[in-house]
């Protein structure tokens, strides 16, 4: 019983009813694939694995479907299997079935390596979405960079000349030095950045020209024209709702995904809105934004949708995974209303195995040896509780972790900090 319990990941608390994620042992996968494909090849829905004991459990819980967590994409199947991601399956069954009993019964099967409850994971967004004031002219020092975007003058975090009317106590140079950086490069359309967040408003007039477009697909189509396992995925995919329709207007949506995308790649020198750090020069030369939607309105994400989104980004051309969110850190203060998250990398790896596998897949497989980047870069927020260690996944040593500084070079009042923080940014 203890051995079976050790295979369980998370608990049934706050988990999706009628759904479990199962990782099978390598030796069992070939038989499962054969059993599932016999049914799915003709358009049916598989409900049996070919493992007698496991199928007995499926029969007892009113199974509805058994399918791979990561859809087959023949272009990337070899590396998917090398990473072991083909071993993960989703089991859908009667929502009235006892979720704890179902998970433990599955975990007792020798061919099963892990059973993960598909929890609703609540992440904390980094920073705040602050609307820009409509008044005031751009200071000359900022206008001198040559871009005509009307709100560049308000983006002190790009070019800070110490203007106290924008931010009290502001100090010159507390910025990301865009004025100098833009002399060298304003962006590169061969770089695709996956914004994994709320949905990006791809039709926004200051973003549309810099959106990644999957040319082989028709938006919202019910056909998978490019064979990547997803139908109608033109600007990315909505993994929160398992639909190609990118959504930015659900109740509770904060606009955070669009805000992040604008910071990265709002089109520069188009007479519209703000500038993007890598938004180009107005000649179609900004980086491209892929929308990986894992949050929708008031809802958190799940291990299922998050892992699918990360792998999709790697398999469809993204080389940077931008995640301006994270869990609470291990030093989060319960008194302040924060529930502590993993405190060490080992604890995170044991608690979130599917998330780690997906991130590792992105880091190892995004880009190409002949492309702009060989391997991916995953960027996460350090956290918002003013704790002395970053939250995860940002705390993972293979990710880039970003803390926040204010306009006077001091730490932002909310930012996490500590040894595993790689970059501080205003």
Helix fraction, binned, reads 10-25%
Record field, number of beta strands = 14
The number of helical elements comes to 11
Largest sheet: 7 strands, parallel
Q: In angstroms, what is the radius of gyration?
A: 23 Å
Note the run of SSEs as H and E.
HEEHHEHEHEEHHEEHEHEEHHEEE
* Strand order across the largest sheet: 8-9-7-10-12-13-14
Shape: globular
Strand portion: 15-25%
Structural class: alpha/beta
Report on this model:
The chain is of the alpha/beta class and 426 residues long. It is built from eleven helices and 14 strands. It has helices at residues 2-5, 26-40, 52-60, 77-82, 99-107, 140-143, 178-184, 256-265, 303-315, 345-351, 353-365; strands at 8-9, 15-24, 65-68, 88-92, 112-119, 124-125, 192-198, 236-238, 288-295, 320-323, 325-326, 377-381, 400-404, 423-425. The strands form three sheets. A seven-stranded parallel sheet has the order 8-9-7-10-12-13-14, with helices on both faces. Strands 1-5-2-4-3 form a five-stranded mixed sheet. Strand 8, helix 8 and strand 9 (288-295) form a beta-alpha-beta unit. The longest helix has 15 residues, at 26-40.
Layout of secondary structure:
Elements: H1 2-5, E1 8-9, E2 15-24, H2 26-40, H3 52-60, E3 65-68, H4 77-82, E4 88-92, H5 99-107, E5 112-119, E6 124-125, H6 140-143, H7 178-184, E7 192-198, E8 236-238, H8 256-265, E9 288-295, H9 303-315, E10 320-323, E11 325-326, H10 345-351, H11 353-365, E12 377-381, E13 400-404, E14 423-425
Parallel strand pairs: 1-5, 7-9, 7-10, 8-9, 10-12, 12-13, 13-14
Antiparallel strand pairs: 2-4, 2-5, 3-4, 6-11
Helix pairs in contact: 9-11
């Amino acid at each position: 019983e203890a051995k079976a319990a050790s295979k369980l990941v998370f608990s049934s608390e706050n988990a999706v009813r009628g759904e479990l994620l199962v990782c099978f042992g390598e030796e069992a996968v070939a038989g499962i694939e054969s059993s599932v494909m016999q049914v799915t090849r003709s358009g049916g829905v598989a409900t049996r694995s070919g493992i007698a004991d496991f199928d007995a459990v499926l029969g007892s819980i009113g199974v509805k479907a058994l399918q791979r967590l990561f859809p087959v994409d023949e272009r990337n199947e070899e590396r998917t299997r090398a990473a072991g991601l083909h071993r993960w399956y989703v089991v859908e069954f009667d929502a009235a079935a006892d979720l704890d009993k179902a998970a433990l019964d599955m975990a007792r099967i020798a061919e099963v390596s892990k059973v993960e409850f598909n929890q609703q994971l609540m992440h904390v967004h980094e920073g705040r979405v602050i609307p820009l004031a409509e008044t005031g002219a751009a200071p000359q020092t900022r206008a001198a960079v040559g871009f005509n975007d009307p709100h560049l003058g308000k983006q002190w975090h790009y070019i800070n000349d110490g203007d106290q009317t924008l931010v009290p106590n502001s100090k010159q140079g507390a910025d990301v030095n865009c004025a100098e950086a833009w002399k060298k490069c304003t962006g590169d359309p061969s770089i695709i950045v996956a914004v994994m967040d709320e949905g990006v408003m791809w039709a926004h007039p200051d973003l549309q020209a810099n959106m990644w477009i999957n040319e082989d697909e028709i938006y919202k189509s019910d056909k998978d024209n490019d064979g990547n396992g997803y139908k109608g995925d033109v600007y990315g995919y909505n993994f929160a709702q398992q639909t190609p329709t990118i959504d930015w207007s659900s109740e509770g949506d904060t606009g955070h995904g669009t805000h992040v995308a604008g910071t990265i790649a709002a089109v520069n020198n188009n007479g519209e809105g703000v500038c993007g750090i890598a938004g180009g020069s107005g000649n179609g030369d900004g980086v491209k934004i892929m929308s990986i939607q894992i949050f929708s309105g008031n809802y958190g994400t799940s291990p299922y949708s998050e892992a699918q989104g990360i792998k999709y980004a790697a398999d469809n051309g993204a080389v940077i995974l931008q995640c301006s969110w994270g869990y609470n850190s291990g030093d989060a203060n319960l008194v302040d209303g924060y529930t502590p998250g993993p405190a060490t990398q080992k604890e995170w790896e044991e608690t979130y195995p599917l998330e780690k596998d997906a991130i590792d897949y992105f880091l190892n497989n995004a880009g190409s040896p002949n492309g702009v980047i060989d391997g991916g870069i995953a960027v996460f927020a350090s956290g918002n509780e003013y704790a002395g260690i970053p939250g995860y996944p940002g705390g993972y040593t293979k990710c880039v972790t970003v803390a926040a500084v204010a306009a006077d070079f001091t730490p932002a009042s909310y930012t996490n900090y500590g040894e595993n923080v790689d970059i501080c940014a205003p």
